Amino acid sequence: MSFARLLARRIALLIGLLATVFVVVDLLPGNTARAVLGRDATPERIAAKEHELGLDRPLPQRFWDWISGVSTGDFGHTARGRSINELLAAKFPPTLLLGGLAVLLTVVVSLVLGVWWSARPSVAPNGAVAEKIQADSTVGFGVGTGGRGEVVRERARTIRHGGMGLMRPVTTIAAAIPEFVVATLLILVFALAAGWLPAVTITGRSGFPASPDMLVLPVLALAIPQIGWNTQVVRAAMVDAAQSPHVESAVLDGISTPAVLLRHVLPFALPTIVASFATTVGMVLGGSLVVETIFNYPGLGAVLAGSVADRDVSVVASVVALSGAVIMCVLAVADGIRAWSLRGSG
Prior knowledge:
Number of helices: 14
Order of helices and strands: HHHHHHHHHHHHHH
Number of strands: 0
Distance between the termini: 15 Å
Strand content: under 5%
Largest sheet: none
Helix content: over 70%
Structural class: mainly alpha
């Protein structure tokens, strides 16, 4: 599929998602005008407010008017009269900082752990690659069960299988725990029990957290589940790429295990790894909305919670549109990296 078609497909998917958001929020119980005016508002005031907000128009027309404005960069106004553009400009950068740090930590730790895991000696019996190298080494080196042939067999087994140990259960548990549970556990251990880190974020004049240590627990809450998942993906991609014939040749040529992993295995595992990291961006952005609420972080989480309470569909859709645009950009970069890593392979 060409890049243009792929991009058009993703844009269409985003528009469909935004239309679904409009429908879902409109179906929520409650009334936007009443939420803004309060419970004591008279029916006449509520009707006037609904007309002012355009709520008396058909839902498809309201969606079309909103999406037309978004196409020109105008997200409209909240039900309380504030510019959504100004609101997003103030609240999205802190969320981007939090998510960016979590993604960066995930990428670094997952790559290190995944490559290290795939290079650990295995207790499993020799696989097909190790057996073939054993036969080749017996012919080529004149040795059977010892000497250089044994070294080659052990290195092939190391690269082919990877180690098990505690890595699989630990990463599986980490990947399975939701972000809000991780956040709660981190608060209990590091904030309440140990008193090392703050459990609540205080906003400075800049709109960002007042001190860097207030970012530690939210970033960890977002990164830990993603590290667990992506470490397994990196390890699996490395093991799968190690089945290639050129890896056997590299081992037989006496190239060191780290060099084989980095130069002959990792580049072929890169498409799968990059796709997983690109998916992580969407997971982190989605999880940050919950984590921000738990830590009172000054980002889009509070904006989204307030807009849902007000049934303010324009704000909810604007948050989804902005997050979707970021994810589309990341996916475009991932497509480029995959295309570069697969160049010449066809």
